Queue: 3 jobs
Job 1
Amino acid sequence: MTLSFAYRRYSLPFRTPVRTAHGLWTTREGLFVRLENEAGGVGFGECAPIPWFGTETVDEAAAVCDALGASVDAERIAEIDAKEFPCLRFAFESAQASIAGRDVRAPGALPVAALLPAGRAALEKIHALAEAEFRTFKWKVGAGDAADELALLDDVVAALPAGARLRLDANGAWDRRAAERWLARVADYPVEFVEQPVASEAEDLLLGLAADYPTPLALDESVAGAGDVARWLDLGWPGIFVIKPSLLGDTAGALARLPAERAVFSSALETAVGAADALRVAFGFYANAAMETKPRAIGFGVWPLFADARFDGPRAAPFVRLTDVDRRRSKSEVLWNALTC
Ligand code: MG
């Protein structure tokens, strides 16, 4: 069946620039795709690349869209290489799924991790987030001096409510020495996992650290596309995988082999359009997983995120429900129309 096709680019400043291992990120760039079938069924999808994770750039995705013209069919969409254009593939698959109206049988709600800012600022946030009933907290580390941050760890742990879980995310910032010091120290703390302690290129070091210390490690920047999940499983990675559905390309392929207890679903800082589809992937994954698997808190506590609040998903709360996700998704057309002005 032929589908009429259009796309629109966006360039959305963040409310607050996002600190990354590659410097400050001030503006989210991406594009929306719109598909319409002959019966008038319309679906939207979002391509939200993060090139330093190894995805395509927005320009590259837009060039593919330009080459497609005003109509596509399922075969042509399937020809978009999921390795080369993972984010664009996700956009098209999301739009197709939306037209098909595929139902997800899923848990009613998934727990959400609260984000703590780097450094001492984390301490001021914990109380209010605990009052709001968050129980999983992610603290950004590796942003300042490793010794100073390590000295704060006791205070952060002491401030957490009873039964809380703490995640640390170094965004690949530590060298071997800093990573070893931290991992030796956190062995005695209620740390759920340490995310990307060293750079994604340091694969042997990551495997060595995972073997040498008891606290689980999680790969984030190391997992750019579906192929990386399979590759790390083949390397014997014993830890956790941060799964950003928007970046995976072949989502079903990537998740097929992944044990449910080793996945942590996460935002790629998409707009509400792509986030709703990424969340549906997460809900679908747990619907298929064994019932006894308790989902790990998802990393979608990112909103408010954009200067233009219309593009935000639901404000961070300790749980997200599929019905909230679907309500947001029905606003895709409004956001598409917002890009004309
Ligand atoms: Mg991370």
Note: The first strand starts at residue 2 and ends at 20.
Job 2
Amino acid sequence: MQTLILPPKPENLLRAARIIQEGGIAAFPTETVYGLGANALEKQAVKRIFVAKGRPADNPLIVHLWDVSQISSVAESLPDYAGKLAAAFMPGPLTLVLKKKACIPDVVTAGLDSVAVRIPSHPVALELLKLCGCPVAAPSANTSSRPSPTDAHAVFEDMDGRIPLIIDGGPCDVGIESTVVSALGELPAVLRPGKVTADEIAAVCGGISMDIPADRERPLSPGTKYRHYSPSCLTLGFFEVTDRLKEQLRRFAEQGKRISVVAFESALVKFEGVRKFSLGENETEAAERLFAHLRAAEKGADVIFVQSPPRKAMGGALYNRISKACGEQFAD
Ligand code: TXA
Ligand code: MG
């Protein structure tokens, strides 16, 4: 199959919408990362997503809508606090997990009785969703376990020959995936950190649940148990540029290993003789650049060192992605 990359002109959005309406899959930009969409009401269509990504069947998908009023067509109810969250953060990088309606097939939710819903704020995504006229199941448009794609080229890298069309909306603004919040309990619970932080959620709802069982067999957000965001070479995290870290780098260099360093500007200037990729000056810039830099840094490298901000920064979202990318291996 030939994979086209087309700009978001009306005729190309129509083409993508037609593919999705006819049971196919197509990739499109959102403000977080690129998504790979299928008609969420069609079991066979959704299965194609799992095949294209090599995604485990027990990892459920987010259903994308274009308006808050559609939530009631896929979810049984919207608890009061969830309604407040929808009003505050939708459209935007927030996903709500709600009790599902029967129209959503099991393949979307991996057999759970809940459904994750999100309304992206990217104008191209909204336009495409409206043209489709159906709820669209869409995971990040990467091969399973790889860093999420934040531009059309990264989607192409993973999906060339597997999907007919990628709508190119340029680089994504946010750069990391939406905050996933369970609205199944008395209080909201963050299942995956993102740009919308736990503090912001607690401020809107008047509280937040800290009680997230670490049940590995049947986790609340199944996707969080798998290898994720991983470059193709050895990847090590670090927090500060210490003597111990420099010593590790020196040892790799002595073994003839090619080293890439992905770090904040202030740390990057302390490295020599390595390929450098700047995460910029702050967490917002870092989120925007992280996945693209991991994909660039792995090329021609034997090892990547990637700097994480402290756990607390940006609600821990960057720490979450970086610790997974390096398989929890921190050099220092
Ligand atoms: O920003 C985003 O959320 C992007 C863009 C494309 O919208 N999508 C995305 O989808 O990141 P994906 O499939 O890569 O991640 C979906 C996450 C997974 O961790 C999954 O386990 C969780 O949402 N999830 C989906 N449905 C769920 C459910 N019913 N209950 C709990 N977690 C769920
Ligand atoms: Mg993903």
Note: The chain has twelve helices and 14 strands.
Job 3
Amino acid sequence: MKIAIVGTGYVGLVTGISLAKLGHKVICIDQDKDKIAKINNAKSPFYEPGIDEQLKKMLDKGLLHATEKLEEAVLTSDITFIAVGTPTVNNKIDLSSIKKASMQIGKALLKVEKYHTVVVKSTVLPGVTEGVIKPTIEKYSRKLLGEFGLCMNPEFLREGNALEDALNPDRIVIGQIDERSGKEFAKIYAKVPVSIIFTNLSTAELTKYATNALFATLISFSNEIARIAENLDEVDVLDVWKGVHLDRRLSPHIGSTQIKPGVLNYILSGCGFGGSCFPKDTQALATFADQLGIQASIIKSVIKINETQFQRIILLLKKALGENLKKKKIAVLGLTFKPNTDDIRGSAAFPIIEALLSEKARVISHDPMAYEKLVPKQLTNLQIVLASTVEEAVTDADATIVVTAWEEYIKLSPHFFKKLMKRPIVIDGRRIYNKHSFLSSGIIYKGIGL
Ligand code: UGA
């Protein structure tokens, strides 16, 4: 089938590549000329393992290309995806890109005679597809629903695993405004051996928020338990999670082996959740619940715990280094919100760095992916030094804080810190080190939940 995708961010481009791999002809559309040029040169605008290689393959096969020309792309396609961003502004979902894309698609549909299905991939709150996107398309296309189709198909891919998630989805949720829309759209997944849930638009929209909010809740819950553990003698929250994880309901037995489901990775304590999705989606959901007159006290607490988790790191640091951080050299390892991505949006590193700077500490940070060009205004305004190697970052430091669990940091030995640092204080924000070997080597080792 011929598919147009509006928006070449994570969701748009990865969806495009995976649909091209299924044999569809995909046109990716973006208003940003630089992005278009990059994509057509097989260079993804963002980092994702293996993406440039897959992109090149699809370009070479003529199954994918990028363009600025939205109308032309829609006119030559059977299905148009909306995959533009839905950021949270002033705690509310910002629909300006969604409205613009819907208007442009509507205008293009004015000239389309055959049945065309519009599919919303962007994360939007319940009611948006029906209440905002549908009337906008109807207005500008001068067509009524039925003359075109409309579906909501949430995306569940994770950064760092995006291609794998998109190529092997665990489920496909299709919110359909009418049966024909869902039936026409589902044809693109004909070759994918996976369960498809057909439902209505609002259920599909809420499924996406409920999924993200659930994982965010697990993380904040784990951090709340860590706070309790930190206040008890001889309790390490890692041992607590070991005991919890082995519950058969969390780690079922298949034959004689007990499996370790992915959900367990979210039932662990650390610096808190970040990224471009969990923080914005939990906030948008909480505000939406308020509008419905629902308290949403769990989601609000999840956000609050996450927003204050950075203080736990500062507290641990002060326990080791003393209250006065002025002129102390602190190495911060990791700027991305998680490993294997170059995304620094919502990263726990920033509130930590801001807190350190407000106490007049000297901050030197390192990250294997977030090079200087990726550093946003927020960071360039901060007086921090970016080290090009981890050795440079920790040399002569009074303390090191690990914020992101990059493989490169996991491999570091106690000896490495002892040899280079002024004082061997390590604050493990992701609990990546073996506390026994660090403590027995003379490191002043502190970690979340310890
Ligand atoms: C998240 C969801 O996991 C995806 O299902 C969803 O499609 C996506 O948002 C979205 O809404 O577009 P992503 O933000 O890439 O994807 O990342 P995750 O890997 O789930 O990470 C989110 C947060 O959870 C991060 O702060 C990360 O550090 C934390 N996390 C992640 C863990 O604590 N443990 C893990 O094993 C993975």
Note: Residues 123, 155-159, 212, 215, 219, 265-266, 273-275, 277-278, 337-338 surround uridine-5'-diphosphate-glucuronic acid (CB under 6 Å).
